Amino acid sequence: MINARRLGALIGTALTFAILVPATAGEAVAASPVRISSVQYDSPGSDTGTNYSRNAEWVRITNYSSTKRSLSGWTLRDAQNHVYRFGTFSLGAGKSVRVHTGRGTNTSTDRYWGSSWYVWNNTNDKAILRNSAGTTVSSRSW
């Protein structure tokens, strides 16, 4: 006969097991080869609001795969839902691009949000990268 304490332990073990087992055998979510690799959320020096200062805020996105990846229609956003949308853009294999907060001329290594003020909070924010289907593929919190 099983006492109440032992029964509770068995039920807890069964619940833990049920939570850890995938719903569908073989189903796995692969990590995206394109991910946020670093964030400079606090512009060095005083936050003067100049374009130079805003562009010192950036998010680096890296393609860790061996093939070029299209980022067309992908978005980068913060916790307050400020959104940067990639236009037609591909990121080469093993390459990185920095998305700067301010204005500038887009290149293969630097993209510009065009924001008139800072996007990233110096404390307690989150950079979220979503693919063109709207699926979050990478995020970085601080």
If you had to describe this structure to a student in words, what would you say it looks like?
There is one protein chain. With 142 residues, the chain is of the alpha+beta class. The protein contains 2 helices and 10 strands. The strands form 3 sheets. It has a 4-stranded mixed beta sheet, with no helix packed on it. A 4-stranded antiparallel beta sheet has the order 5-4-9-10, with no helix packed on it. It has a two-stranded antiparallel sheet with strand order 3-6. Strand 4 and strand 5 form a beta hairpin. It starts with a helix and ends with a strand.
List low-confidence stretches. 1-29
- The percentage of residues in β strands lies in 25-35%
Report strand order across the widest sheet: 1-2-7-8
Q: Bin the helical content.
A: 10-25%
Radius of gyration: 21 Å
Note the total helix count: 2
CATH-assigned fold name: Immunoglobulin-like
What would you call the shape? globular
Major sheet summary line = 4 strands, mixed
Average pLDDT taken over every residue: 85
* Classification by helices and strands: alpha+beta
Keywords:
142 residues, alpha+beta, Immunoglobulin-like, four-stranded mixed sheet, four-stranded antiparallel sheet, disordered N terminus
Question: What would you say about this model in short?
Answer:
The chain is built from two helices and ten strands. It is α+β, with helices and mostly antiparallel strands.
